[in-house]
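To assess whether ligand presence alters the predicted conformation, the chain was also submitted together with fe (ii) ion. Input:
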Amino acid sequence: MTPEETFRRDGFVRFAAPGLEAWLAAARRLTAAAMACVPADHPQWRCGGTWFVGLDILPNDGSGMLPGAALPPGLLEKVGKISGSPPPLHPAQVSIVRPGYPVDDGSENPAAARFRRNRAGAHVDGVRPRGPEKRRRVEDPHAFVLGLPLDSVTEGNAPLAVWKGSHLVMGPALADAGAAVGADVTEAYKEARKTVFETLERVHLTGEPGDAWLLHRHLLHGVAPWIGPPAAERRVAYFRPELPDVAAWLRP
Ligand SMILES: [Fe+2]
């Protein structure tokens, strides 16, 4: 099966990204430099200081190039072949998880804290809950999620949880609910998510620096708890390039 076929069927594909060493080294160095200026009470530190969201932390350009280190030739071409040509890249996110994640620090209600622990905080990017009623609309469309581990990611240190094939449930449900015209999709989203939990397999993405994970934009995913012994934090860089509109996002 080709990577394109795997991606279409499962909603994700893992592959080796040869030649990534220099970029990873630069990303580690720049992440450390950025984090040296981040106070412990920074709003992107969540879950009792066990997760730093890390939005826009890397100073890469639209091609992903960091100062002195380009992405290896062929990586974005491969991504484009699998999921469609990417729009220009944004400054990459670096998600940092520390031992004990997720610590319940009381900032989430008990149901949300349970959902984070038991269901890995599963979500589809771009369909965030808003306001006290937690209503959802598609309002942050982007092309895909490309994950590049900066550290070894194992079953023990908060791997990325994905639900295999969930893009084929979530995407059509949101389209049918009128996401294209800005409709409130809260009920459709919850119903589709429930179907996914009841019928599809949860898979944990683990890997080493030099691996790449490509997720379909409609794939249900989240971060599994840190269940291993305490060890150094683990970091994963993510590219989620923005799409111009929700209609483009809704395409399968
Ligand atoms: Fe996400």
